[in-house]
Design brief:
Strand order of the largest sheet: 1-7-6-2-5-4-3
Low-confidence stretches: none
Structural class: alpha/beta
Shape: globular
Strand content: 25-35%
Number of domains: 1
CATH class: Alpha Beta
Order of helices and strands: EHEHEEHHEEE
CATH architecture: 3-Layer(aba) Sandwich
Number of strands: 7
Length: 137
């Protein structure tokens, strides 16, 4: 599936399409270079899901936890600073994946072989101007 976002005003619609496509799958892995819009898109998805917390990049904390209006937990993980896969095992990555909660992951290539098999993979590339192209598999 491919979603083209031409303007930030289209992000909510794109987020809804992605959530509909992902269905029961709650591990969403976002790929793309620095500045591609991974964090921005995750913020919008969390807002669509009803997150009440301020959504920010967990680059230094590795994991941020957000709560929705109905008490649902959303996890936002960032593996950019991971040097060794044992680091993610130490903070209990398996527990996040098996929680039944959404796990939105930035820089998943750092732990590719540890991702749940059913993970939705979203590759974000820049198009012309502010356009972003999301290739989803």
């Amino acid at each position: 599936m491919k979603i083209v976002v031409n303007d930030k005003r289209e992000l909510v619609t794109a987020a809804k399409k992605l959530l509909a496509y992902s269905g029961y799958r709650k591990s969403l892995a976002f790929y793309g270079p620095m500045g591609a819009g991974k964090t921005t898109f995750i913020k919008v998805i969390c807002r669509v899901l009803g997150a009440e917390d301020i959504v920010s990049s967990p680059t230094f904390t590795l994991v941020n936890e957000y709560r929705t209006k109905n008490g649902q937990v959303l996890y936002h993980l960032d593996f950019f600073r991971i040097k060794d896969k044992s680091e993610v095992l130490d903070f209990g990555i398996e527990e996040y994946f098996s929680s039944g909660s959404y796990c939105f992951m930035e820089w998943p290539e750092m732990i590719e072989d540890m991702l749940p098999e059913e993970s939705v993979r979203i590759r974000i590339t820049a198009g012309r101007g502010n356009q972003r192209i999301l290739d989803i598999s």
